[in-house]
Amino acid sequence: MPLINKFEKDNSTIGIWKIEEEESSLMNILSEEKIDKDKLNSFTSLSRRKEFLSVRALIKSMLGFLPQIDYHSQGKPFFKDFDYNISISHTKGFATVIISKSESIGIDIEQLGDRAFRIKDKFLSEAEIKAMDEKNPSLYCCICWSAKETLFKALGCTDVFFDEMLLLSPFLTESNGIINASEKRTLDNMKFKINYQTTNDFVLTYLIS
Question: Which of 2, 26, 63, 135 could pair with 53 in a Cys bridge, judged by C-beta atoms 3.0 to 4.6 Å apart?
Fold first, then answer.
C-alpha cells in the first residue's frame, strides 16, 4: 500500500497516500469494508473515483478498519459510530486525512503549480499580497490557498469570503513552518496556528485546535 507518510501531532494522526493503483486494486484493498457504492458511482471521472477510494484505503491503513463516513449538510465529513473527528483532502496524485479527538481540525493538500498565484486577487487580502515572498511567489500563494482551505474546513461554515474573513499573518516561505491565522466570519474572531509542509510535489497544511 502506498502510504507514504504517517505521523502523530497533538494527539492526532495524519496520513498521506500516493494514488498510483488502478481502481480495481483499491477495490480489492477495501473488499472487506462497507463503502458507499452510490456515492462512488456518482463520480463519472476515473480520477475522482480513485481519490474517493484512496481516501478510504488511507483511513483503513491508519486505523486497521474503515468506519462509516457520512457528510454534514455543508459537506464536512464525519465518522458514524466512531468517536473521532476527521478531515479529508486530495489533489492530483495524493490524498491526505487527519483523524483526531479535537473538535476543530482541518487539512488540505495542493499540487504545486502557479494556479494560486494567477488567482491571488480572489483569495488574498491586500496585506497578504504585500507580504508575498518575491523569491517564490507561486509557492507562497499555494501555501496561502492551502492554509485558507484548511481554516475553512476547520470552521465548518459556509458563506466565507477568503480574502476578507480568513486572514494570514506574514510568514517565511520555507520547507515547513507555522502560520498565525484569524477568522472574521464569526463574532468570536478566533485565532489559529496552521502547520504547513512543502515537498517537490505538494503543499500540505493542517490545523488542530
Answer: 26
Could you tell me the pLDDT band of residue 4, with boundaries at 50, 70 and 90? confident
Q: Which of 205, 5, 208 is nearest to 107 (CA)?
A: 205
pLDDT digits over 98-131, tens only? 999 998 999 999 999 999 999 999 999 999 999 9
Cα–Cα dist 46/186, whole Å: 38
**Residues 99, 142 contacting (CB under 8 angstroms):** no
d(CA 122, CA 120): 5
Q: Rounded to an integer, what distance in angstroms lies between the CA atom of residue 26 and that of residue 30?
A: 6
Nearest alpha-carbon partner for 92 in 201, 209, 2, 207: 201
| Cell digits of residue 118 | 494567477
H-helix or E-strand spanning residue 130: helix 126-130
C-alpha distances in Å from residue 189, one per residue of 64, 106, 154, 183: 38, 17, 14, 5
User: Taking the complete model, does pTM exceed 0.85, yes or no?
Assistant: yes
The number of beta carbons lying within 10 Å of the beta carbon of residue 38 is 7
Q: How do 3-9 and 12-18 pair as beta strands?
A: antiparallel
Query: Tens of pLDDT along 16-62?
Result: 999 999 999 999 999 999 898 999 999 999 999 999 999 999 999 99
User: Contact at 8 Å (CB) between 167 and 56?
Assistant: no
Cα separation values, 79 from 51, 70, 143, 188, Å: 18, 6, 28, 27
Helix (H) or strand (E) holding 83: none
